[in-house]
Design brief:
six-stranded antiparallel β-sheet, 551 residues, 20 helices, alpha+beta, three-stranded antiparallel β-sheet
C-alpha cells in the first residue's frame, strides 16, 4: 500500500518503481514545491555498510548544481525506509522516447549526448561517478533539455556484488566491462555507458543482449558487438567510429573525459554539416572547362551567376599573391639573392654553435661542484672531481684557490692510495707497508695494523716526495684508532659473555651457555676484528657437543 506522506512531502501519486524502491510525486507542505520522492525498500537498510554509503553519496550528490543534472533537495528516513527527494522534471524518460520512436536520427542522438556530457563533466569535476547511466535515468523536458538523474545510486546500493536484496544493482545492458568485473568505476566507465546509450538511440537496440543479466555482462567483458553501420547503413563513418571508440573494452582506449568527448561530438556534427554543405556547393559552382549536359527539352544551359562564386574568389586571390611575388619589393628581391641566403645560413649555423656550446663554469662553480662530490661516499666521482675541477682550478689561479683546493686533493689522493681494486703491486716500499697494514685491518688484526701505520707515519714525516702517501697513512691510522676505540666496549661485552657462559656450563646449565655461544657466533661470525671471541665460542660449543656442526 502506497504511503500518504513521506517526511515533509504529501504523496500525490506513484510515478515509477524498480528493484530498489518506488518513486512518488510529492508536494512539500510548506512551500508547495513538487518533488520526485524515491523511497527505498526496507531490506536495503540491512545491507552491510548501506547507511554509511547512503549518507556519503547523498552528501556528494547534494553539491551537484548543473542545468543538466536533476537537483537533490533532501534525504531522510521514514520508519525503516530511507528516502531522498529530487527535483521533479515534467516530461518523459529517454527510455519512453525510444519505445515510441524506436530509433533517433544520429544528430538528435548526438545533441542528447552533448547534454549528458555537460552533466558528466560537472559530476566528474566534483569527484562523483554516476555508475548507472542508462535511458531510464535520462529525463527529456518538453523544451528538449536533457537532465541526468540518480547520480551515485549504484554506489549507494553496491555491497561488493552484482545483486542485492530486491533486484540487480545497475543495468546489465549499459554496464562497463570494468564494472562487470567488479573493478572500481571511473570517469571512462560513465563514457562507456553513454556509448551504449548512443548505440541504442541510433540503432534501436543495445550493443549486447541475452536471456539473463549474467549473459549480457559476460558479453560486455568478452563479446564483440556489431558496428552501428550494420543496422544504419547511411550512418556517417565518423559517427560509427565515435560510438565504437566509446565501447572499447579497455578504459584507456576510450575518450579520456567528458569534455574531450563533448568537443569531439560538436566537431563531428560540424564536419558532417560542412561535408553535406560542400556537396551542395560543389553542384552549384561552374568550374573551369566543365560542361553540364541537359536534355534538349529542358531548354538552354543555366547561366553563370553574376556575382563571383567561391572558385572565382580563390582564383583572384591566387593571382594577386603571384603578382605580389613577381613584382616584389626591396625585401623580396633581397631574399631572392643566393649570396644573401648563403650568408644567412652561415650566420644561423654559427649562432647555433655558439648558443649550444658547452658553458665553462666559473672558478667558484668548479670548487662548489668538487666540494659537493666529496660530500658523497668515496668513489669514482672523487677522481672525476679532481680531474675536472680541482686540478684545473689550481692551474688557473693557485694563489687564490691553493689553500682551499690542496686539502681536498690530499683527501682524494688518500682515497686513491687505499681504494679497493687498484693495482696490487706496490710502487714503493712505503706503499707496500701501507698495503700490509690495510690487509691486517681487513682481517681484523687492528693492533698490528695500528703498529705498522704509526711507524710508517713517523718514517714519512717531512718527506715531500711521499706527501700524498703520508696523507693516506695518516687517515688510515686515524680510522684504525677510531675503530679500535669503538671495539673496546664490544670486547668488554663479549669477554663478560664468555665468562658468564663458562660459569653456566660449570654450574649445570649447559643449554643457557650454548645460547650465549651461539649468539656470539651469530652476531659476530662475519666480523674479522671479533674473530678471537668467535673462535673461543665455537671451541666451547664443540667441546660441550662434539657432534655440533660449526656455525
Amino acid at each position: 500500500m502506497d504511503p500518504e506522506r513521506i517526511g515533509p512531502y504529501q504523496i500525490l501519486e506513484k510515478i515509477g518503481s524498480g528493484g530498489m524502491g518506488n518513486v512518488y510525486l510529492g508536494r512539500e507542505a510548506e512551500s508547495g514545491r513538487l518533488a520526485a520522492v524515491k523511497v527505498l525498500t526496507a531490506s536495503l537498510a540491512r545491507e552491510p555498510g548501506f547507511v554509511e554509503r547512503f549518507n556519503r553519496e547523498i552528501d556528494a550528490m547534494r553539491k551537484l548544481k548543473n542545468p543538466h543534472i536533476v537537483s537533490l533537495y533532501e534525504s531522510g528516513v521514514e520508519g525503516e525506509n530511507y528516502y531522498y527527494a529530487m527535483e521533479y522534471v515534467a516530461g518523459e524518460t529517454l527510455m519512453a522516447v525510444l519505445r515510441r520512436e524506436k530509433r533517433l536520427p544520429w544528430r538528435k542522438a548526438f545533441a542528447i549526448a552533448i547534454d549528458v556530457c555537460l552533466a558528466l563533466k560537472a559530476a566528474h569535476d566534483a569527484g562523483i561517478i554516476h555508475r548507472d547511466l542508462k535511458p531510464s535515468n535520462l529525463l527529456v523536458t518538453p523544451e528538449g533539455l536533457v537532465k541526468l538523474t540518480d547520480f551515485g545510486v549504484a554506489q549507494v546500493f553496491a555491497s561488493g556484488r552484482l545483486t542485492a536484496t530486491g533486484g540487480i544493482i545497475g543495468t546489465a545492458e549499459y554496464m562497463s566491462p570494468e564494472q562487470a568485473q567488479g573493478k572500481r568505476a571511473g570517469k571512462q566507465s560513465d563514457l562507456y555507458s553513454l556509448g551504449a546509450v548512443l548505440y541504442a538511440m541510433i540503432t534501436g537496440r543495445t550493443p549486447f543482449s541475452g536471456s539473463t543479466a549474467v549473459e549480457v555482462i559476460q558479453k560486455h567483458k568478452f563479446g564483440v558487438f556489431d558496428r552501428p553501420r550494420l543496422f544504419v547503413t547511411d550512418l556517417p563513418q565518423r559517427v560509427d567510429d565515435t560510438i565504437c571508440k566509446l565501447l572499447e573494452k579497455e578504459p584507456e582506449n576510450r575518450f579520456p573525459d567528458a569534455l574531450v568527448l563533448l568537443r569531439h561530438l560538436e566537431q563531428t556534427i560540424s564536419l558532417e554539416d560542412y561535408a553535406a554543405a560542400g556537396v551542395t556547393l560543389a553542384s552549384s559552382v561552374e568550374g573551369k572547362g566543365s560542361r553540364t549536359t541537359v536534355p534538349a527539352t529542358e531548354g538552354a544551359l543555366p547561366q553563370a551567376p553574376r556575382h563571383p562564386g567561391p572558385a572565382t574568389l580563390m582564383q583572384t586571390l591566387m593571382r594577386a599573391e603571384l603578382s605580389e611575388v613577381v613584382q616584389g619589393g626591396f625585401f623580396s628581391a633581397l631574399f631572392n639573392n643566393i649570396y644573401v641566403l648563403v650568408t644567412l645560413l652561415i650566420l644561423v649555423i654559427l649562432g647555433g654553435v655558439w648558443f649550444f656550446r658547452p658553458q665553462q663554469p666559473t672558478p667558484q662553480e668548479m670548487f662548489d661542484r668538487a666540494s659537493a662530490a666529496l660530500q658523497e661516499e668515496p668513489g669514482p666521482e672523487w677522481l672525476r672531481a679532481r680531474r675536472e675541477y680541482l686540478e684545473p682550478l689550481l692551474a688557473l689561479d693557485s694563489n687564490t684557490w691553493g689553500d682551499r683546493v690542496r686539502p681536498l686533493l690530499r683527501k682524494i689522493d688518500a682515497y686513491e692510495a687505499t681504494r679497493p681494486g687498484r693495482a696490487s703491486r706496490p710502487r714503493s716500499e712505503a706503499e707496500r707497508q701501507l698495503q700490509l697494514a690495510l690487509y691486517y685491518r681487513q682481517v681484523g688484526d687492528l693492533a698490528r695494523a695500528e703498529k705498522i701505520l704509526a711507524a710508517l707515519s713517523a718514517l714519512l714525516a717531512g718527506d715531500e716526495q711521499l706527501a700524498k702517501l703520508q696523507t693516506a697513512v695518516t687517515e688510515s691510522l686515524d680510522e684504525v684508532r677510531r675503530q679500535r676505540a669503538g671495539n673496546e666496549d664490544r670486547d668488554r661485552m663479549l669477554k663478560a659473555a664468555l665468562e658468564r657462559a663458562a660459569t653456566l656450563a660449570r654450574d649445570g646449565s649447559p643449554a643457557e651457555a650454548q645460547e650465549i655461544w651461539k649468539g656470539i657466533i651469530e652476531l659476530y661470525g662475519d666480523d674479522a676484528s671479533a674473530r678471537e671471541f668467535v673462535r673461543q665460542a665455537q671451541h666451547e660449543l664443540d667441546s660441550l657437543n662434539p657432534h655440533h656442526e660449526p656455525q
